[in-house]
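Troubleshooting: if your tokenizer reports a length mismatch, compare your output against this known-good record of 645 residues.
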Amino acid sequence: MTAPDTATRPIPPVSPVPPDVEQAEAAIVEHYPRLVRLAYLVLPPALGRNRRVLTAHSLVQRALPRGRRDAGAAAAVQGGVPGQRGGADDSGYTYVRLRVLRAALEAGIPLTFRALPRRAQLPPVLPQVWGLRLFPRSGGAEELALDQWLATLDGPGRAACVLRALERLPEPEVLRVLDEAGVPDPAAAVAESGDPANDGLFASPEFDPCVLQARPTDLLRRRRLVRAALAAGAALAICGALLALPGGGWGSDGAAAPLYARNAAAEQALDPGKLVRAAPTLWRTSSRTDFSTWPARGDRAADTELLRRALAVWARPGPSVVTSATPGTPAGPPMGPAQLLFAGAVDQAVVVLMYDGLRVVRYAEPRTGTAGAALDFARTDGASADTATALVLSRVDGNVRYLTAPWVTGAALRDLLKPALPAVVLKPTPDGITPPVASPAPAGSCTGWNALALTGDGATRLITDLGELTPARLTSGAPGAERDVTEAAELGDWSRIACLLPAVRSHGVRTVNAWTYAKQPLPEGDGTAAWLCTRAETWQGAADRVQAQFLAPGAPMAAQAARSEGSAACGPREPRVLAGVLWKSRAGQWYVLAAGSAQFASLSVSGGGVSGSANGNRLAVKAQAGAQVDLSGKLTDGTKAGVLR
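Known-good structure output:
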């Protein structure tokens, strides 16, 4: 009953004319994670996880056709891959997907001395990551078993699995796409692709080459190469010094790139003397209570050289600067003088936080030198006292330090998985810096999930780290009536759904609200289950993520029943939700269970040998294990509504 993720929704047909290069580029940019996952799964596992990751990214980036139009695209669309739902704006996707699929299948062809190797069979020239091996995050036992089973298939078999599981194509379309990709026997590949019962596992982070872990390569070999490179670099530096001309250069800009243009307004924005500094008590009298009312804090707030380097790197990040931005956040230079929030030494780095009305920017450099400088952007427009309570200052060894808002008077650490335990009181510094606390953001077993309870301005707000510069606020309650998580029952609900938060990590999340929208007596007297809707709203406002969860009595964790991205469900604009699950009673009987919010007057289910209906917003019908059914409902105003998807 779990609805497919947006990343695997059906795609409309390709246009009868090969797409322009701009259309193909737009399709690659929009569906990049999806295309890379497809290539990674089709590539032969014998390449190893590091090379599969780099090769998958390389194949997708090379899928852009050459010239305005690609003559070979005509063959890709003459067969007319049957269309799915969608609009013409995605018409270039099917064409790009076919190019990626062909290249991934070619990469699995063994090299021979009788023929010249194809480009896809060789290690990728770009991208390259020196000194590290990259691989996706490890999954559970089910993902491991699926990965081992995929290794037993040939390339066409894996391609058939991916087209069915990720692309949601029916069998006739899978056969057509495989035929267009040059597979000699598409029917055999489809037959080899196996049972679709585990198709949902293909969307697991185990197979996501865009969310990676890093490990070092051979350290001794690297040391020898570095010594040789240093010797060569020293020789080049001596020769270059003899030929160098006087003039401008790297100078005290640190890790910033050289100046590329001179503009009076831009240079004024980069003047550390013009940084805006809010009065320490402005937040008490201002009509706005957000980051614009934070005073400048930190022991290096008067360090002009540090601030000048931070502004220069913000405007012109050099090639050595590690830059990141939350989704939907522009990473360009400031439009005018920014506001200084913090500048000081934190752990092993020197950190500068600045705000330009749209974004919070974090610049960090080592305590000595500027090598390894980092620049992080986070969108914060529309912030309020509820969502401007803290910013992440540093992450070291799995720990995180926060800088709290000037109106925060108390901070405490709470483990969401242990709601009965009292919160541990923290003592921030006079500048509002918290002690280091364990972050729940890294992947791994969910044995604890830390959140910070911040008291101030007449409220206690619960925030948690989702791997970004701005922590996410946690709330409970019906759409439009969200409230802070303070009651024992609300903490109890969060203890059973907190481990589902990694699904919204690193997506620019502003708030996450949990709403118990229905409670359902289970058949055969097996207790009462609860249905929750969790909505993660983002700063950009167009990629909100919604999950429906089923809480069985006695279960330590909730089960995900449905999910969607970009949906208005479970929010103020559309305060309703409907989801269902297959559930097994203690006596061994399977049931289709479904529940909707109070707006539903009746529910019905059909398909998979199951048929039934019920008045009200709850339904329970006997079924067989693994039944695939269609669930729908009728609202109190008589209109029909479907499940969350």
